[in-house]
Write a structure and sequence with these properties.
The structure is a homodimer of 347-residue chains.
Chain A: E1 11-14, H1 25-33, E2 38-42, H2 51-55, E3 63-64, H3 67-72, E4 77-80, H4 91-102, E5 106-109, H5 119-128, E6 132-134, E7 155-161, H6 168-181, E8 186-189, H7 193-199, H8 213-223, E9 229-232, H9 244-254, E10 258-263, H10 280-291, E11 298-304, H11 311-325, E12 329-330, H12 338-344
Parallel strand pairs in A: 1-2, 1-4, 2-3, 4-5, 5-6, 7-9, 7-10, 8-9, 10-11, 11-12
Helix pairs in contact in A: 1-7, 4-5, 8-9
Chain lengths: 347, 347
């Protein structure tokens, strides 16, 4: 699906007043995975400071205090880079958005709130001849899944997890990056708003009507079907009380040949839930079983998220995960993802 | 959800050109479960023929060839009674809809296509002072599932299937009817447009954004949580390439205590798919396994759909199903559902 042209993006990330690793998760994700396309971060309280000292990424990208300053750096997109409490765009941000439009920038919005339905901002965009892209507002998709993902030339790899919010997007992006560095022909398929904003195309599946989730991802996978390796961003968890519908539609629509299981050893209950996280072994068994009637798929590796654990405990967790699953185990931030790329790209 | 007043309905079911038990599933369902509220079926190719000889139900309801004829029978609602692949209203039907509005009928639409967003038809409704009810146009639901269905006073029973379109709604309705006839306190929870149209309330889950499917059904189940038996209409199939997202969201949102497995022995591949139907045993194992992390649930009975089979073959199929599963087996149209009610209501 058309987003905005990714090849010519010169993004200014708007985080004004919300620049930290949790609230500005979108900005941090973009800084990490498309740094060369970002010309500035707009955050008045931190203007002039070093980005990497605040969010541990983004070295070299200046923090500016105004749209005027971003314009001098030739920004052509203003990307809303934080999710604030309440979900409504704060008043100072509305001013930045109006100024950005007037200065000739397009707006990229990953919030639930649709800026195209905001009469004032929509009018400002129209007057400026600029576009607002509401990333979470997918077009009316009406394609039903039909197992056509099986026809891709390349191998399909999906990241799955024992819970939501534990690194499935990051892992798919890290695998893609490592494969490209090895000269392999790999493509990332985003399925959530941050992933979509990272590559400038795709569909946020959680906003798609349930009948068409598998059809929507099938279409996205086929669009990059000629790549040798197709890395699909996972969503939710197969037994999450709230989000399992998205997860299964994604699994049956993308029909992965291989899966990477993401797991956070320190997490006891699933997010937004008092339900215990199931074991890696159970999740592997269930995931392979629910795919088997449509496609033979194997979990071939494990990625741990050891956030908050010390190095010793994290190393111990990796050893345990390997002992339990018999699979190669990585930690994106401590070991790199090389061992998983070895497995995925073996002949 | 508010629908239209069911007590004064005089429905004309529009099936024109699509009158068979599969495509006109909505019409057939209404003929079976609210026959006294239907005054005509509009189907030109079959006008004047006997309805029961074509779809095995609806004896006494005339098949007419025009809105004019339906008007003479005092129809006050035109109900779109067939579901086409893709969900777009065929051109000849638009003419019927315009004539019905002009003749003073409301329109009831269970297709994905929203007639209220069709400029021409919306204008025609406005001009006539009549209403279009887009049954599949749910309010903006934003509730995420949280396993609260577990708190109902009564037992939750869900119909599941080895495929879509093989009798899950019918079975839930038949069980509800039989229970009520036995004086039991049972409530039916519709989850599809036909079920919603049948009882005049509820949510068509396949039209709900995927993040909120389990939350939507959780709310519907809790709304009848005081009934002793809560019979939830199943949707899709857990391994259907197109519809599994709806199925799993429904399972995790309703958290059934017991499930009834619906199966069509003569069907080799799943609907709209070349994928083989899996065995009853596999589906029972998968369904119980995918629920287990959230709720202990058992398949307690089997309902066969022996459409197109002769009585001997159907009896043989029942014997085989019992031998394979060890569960009571019924056929709604050949044996009645008594044995399943016995199992569900045992103390």
């Amino acid at each position: 699906m058309a987003g905005m042209n990714a090849t010519q993006r010169r993004m200014c990330l708007l985080t004004d007043g919300f620049l930290d690793v949790f609230t500005a998760k979108t900005a941090v994700g973009l800084l990490r995975y498309c740094p060369t396309e970002i010309v500035a971060v707009l955050d008045k309280p931190n203007a002039g400071k070093k980005l990497e000292e605040i969010v541990a990424t983004g070295a070299g990208v200046p923090i500016v205090d105004s749209i005027a300053a971003a314009t001098r750096l030739h920004a052509n997109q203003l990307v809303l880079g934080a999710a604030f409490p309440g979900g409504q765009v704060p008043a100072p941000w509305r001013q930045h958005i109006r100024e950005a439009l007037a200065a000739g920038m397009d707006i990229v919005n990953g919030l639930h709130q649709r800026l195209n339905e905001d009469a004032e901002l929509a009018a400002a965009a129209k007057a400026a001849g600029k576009r607002i892209w509401d990333v979470r507002n997918p077009p009316a998709l009406t394609k039903v899944g039909t197992c056509k993902a099986r026809t891709t030339k390349g191998k399909r790899i999906l990241t799955i997890g024992t819970d939501c919010n534990l690194g499935k997007r990051v892992m798919a992006l890290e695998l893609t990056r490592e494969m490209k560095q090895r000269g392999l022909n790999a493509e990332f398929v985003p399925t959530g708003q941050t992933g979509v904003m990272t590559v400038g195309r795709g569909v946020a599946l959680d906003a798609v009507v349930s009948d068409f989730v598998s059809g929507a991802i099938e279409e996205q996978v086929l669009a990059v079907g000629d790549a040798d390796y197709i890395l699909v961003e996972g969503q939710g968890a197969l037994v999450h009380p709230g989000f399992s519908a998205v997860t299964l539609g994604l699994m049956h629509g993308s029909l992965p040949d291989e899966m990477i299981l993401c797991h956070a050893p320190a997490r006891k209950t699933m997010r937004s839930s008092s339900t215990p996280v199931i074991s890696m072994g159970e999740m592997i068994t269930l995931s392979e079983a629910i795919l088997r009637p449509l496609h033979h798929s194997k979990v071939v590796g494990v990625a741990l998220n050891c956030h908050g654990m010390n190095d010793d405990d994290a190393a111990k967790a990796r050893d345990e995960a390997h002992a339990v699953t018999g699979l190669p185990v990585v930690d994106a931030f401590k070991t790199g993802v090389g061992p998983l790329v070895d497995v995925i790209s073996r002949r």
